[in-house]
Structure formats: C-alpha cells, structure tokens
Specification:
Blueprint lengths: L11 H8 L6 H11 L24 H18 L6 E2 L3 E3 L1 E4 L2 E8 L14 E4 L15 E4 L7 H9 L3 E3 L4 H4 L5 E5 L4 E4 L2
Length: about 190
C-alpha cells in the first residue's frame, strides 16, 4: 500500500482477499482514498438545499429552548462554511475553541506527517480523527479545511485548552507550510504573518 491508512478504503468483502495476497492493488486503494478526501467541489447537499429553519416564536418558551438547542447541535455536527472566507493573508473559518495563538504552521496530510510536528506548532489539516490524538499534546492550535465546532478538532482543542479554527474550506492550500500564523479561536480567523 502507498499509505497504511489506505487500507481503510478496502471493502469488508475485500479484506480476506487482501490478507491472502489478492484483492485491490495499493494504487486502487490510494485512488479510493484520494477520491474520498477530494476537496470541497462536491455538492453540500443531495438534491435541493433544505429550507431555512422555521421560527421558534410560536412555540411555548421551554419547547422553543429545547428546539433551539437541538438545532444548534445538528448545525454543530453538519455545519460547515459553504465557501472560503477571506484571502491568502486572513483566512476565515468557524471558531471552534477560544483563544489566540501565534506559531509555526505545520501541515499534516496523513498519519506519517504527525511525526513532523514540533511542540507549539499550529497544525493545519484537511480534517482530524482519533489517529491525530497521538500528536495533539504538542499543538498550540488547530486549523482544518472541513469540520464544525462539534468536530473532533474542535472538541479536542477545547479539551486541551488551545484555539482552533475549523471549516476554512481550503485553508490548507492558502496557508504555506512552515509560515508563522496567528490563530484567533474567538473570531474564527487565521492570519498568515510570515
């Protein structure tokens, strides 16, 4: 395989074949992984976009509060920015964990890149998952292309106590690897300093 994590793109029915030395090739699995992780040129919704949320004004007070909280939670799981904000100097995103931090931007594109992190880096990734937990203690901040405030990146940043700006759509292509950045987790902005 080209990358160990490409194995996750094998179908359950192919696992036995892979263990026996057959099944899809490493290139096939890498291509599946590439298509799955393709940038945000895919549709945000299947079919037509959903209508805006109805007003809660007609509901009794307690029910309006509950329904507002449910809507907030649902938006937290699926809510991403529909298009990039800002420019190549100031990148907009979703404020996922409060605070400000300045440090070196370090791109993490796969699990192997976690070994390039240094203490205090601002990790820049398309998205994160539990494999990233191994390096999260080193970080000063997290920046992701995808996700919402209820994402893995946002939750881990809040638990660890450092700022996170998520859902930048294409921040990883606008933030050069190794540059100094300011991450503003209060405003949901990343500024490329140098």
């Amino acid at each position: 395989m080209n990358h160990v994590e490409d194995a996750f793109d094998a179908r359950i029915s192919e696992l036995g074949e892979l263990l026996a030395g057959g099944g899809p090739t490493a290139d096939d699995l890498s291509e599946r992984a590439r298509r799955r992780a393709a940038p945000a040129d895919r549709a945000r919704h299947l079919g037509e976009a959903p209508p805006p949320r109805p007003s809660m004004d007609g509901l009794p007070g307690a029910l309006a509060t509950v329904m507002t909280c449910v809507g907030y939670a649902v938006e937290g799981v699926r809510g991403e920015l529909p298009e990039p904000l800002g420019d190549n100097r100031v990148i907009g995103g979703i404020a996922a964990s409060a605070g400000q931090y300045e440090g070196r931007a370090c791109h993490v594109r796969n699990v192997e890149d976690l070994f390039t992190l240094e203490r205090g880096d601002a990790m820049v990734a398309r998205t994160t998952g539990k494999a990233f937990n191994a390096g999260i203690h080193l970080l000063g901040a997290i920046i992701t292309d995808h996700s919402s405030f209820a994402s893995h990146a946002g939750i881990m940043a809040r638990e660890m106590g450092f700022p996170a700006v998520v859902g930048t759509v294409n921040g990883s292509s606008r933030i050069p690897d190794g540059t100094r950045v300011r991450v503003d987790g209060d405003q949901g902005e990343v500024t490329v300093l140098a």
